[in-house]
Amino acid sequence: MTYVVTEACVKCKYTDCVEVCPVDCFREGANFLAIDPDECIDCALCVAECPVEAIYAESDVPEEQRDFIRINAELATRWKPIIERKPPLPDADEWATIKDKKGLLER
Fold first, then answer.
1. What does the DSSP assignment read for 19-79?
2. Could you tell me if 3 and 44 are in contact, meaning their C-beta atoms sit under 8 angstroms apart?
3. Domain total of the chain
4. How far is Cα 70 from Cα 92, in angstroms, rounded to an integer?
5. How many angstroms from the chain centroid is the CA of residue 52?
6. Whole-number Å distance between alpha carbons of 17 and 103
7. Residue 13: which of 72, 90, 89 has the closest Cα?
8. Radius of gyration of the chain (CA)
9. Which domain holds residue 73?
10. In this predicted model, what pLDDT tens digit does every residue of 59-88 receive, in sequence order?
11. Is residue 105 part of a domain?
12. What rounded mean pLDDT belongs to the chain?
């Protein structure tokens, strides 16, 4: 099992999770973070750190978000690792409660 970043992260990109990851499994895109399933050690430290509750255990990803399992795996092969906390996107707080953002994910 691995952990998965889901739709709530789109256009927010809080990086609190990156700071606690012991194996640097996060990958950074323009407006989203992904978890590399080959690097994740299932420690769950990142889950509690995400202010928008975007991270789930693979087995707990809500049905309507299940395609993010594939999306994380795909993007993890293309994006570079992020190993330090950075400021969230400038309008992250405004986007934090908005639903249906999948179409806004910049690949």
1. HH-SS--EEE-SS-EEE-TTT-----HHHHH-TT--EEEGGGS-GGGTHHHHHHHHHHTTS
2. yes
3. 1
4. 24
5. 10
6. 23
7. 89
8. 12
9. 3-88
10. 999 999 999 999 999 999 999 999 999 999
11. no
12. 97
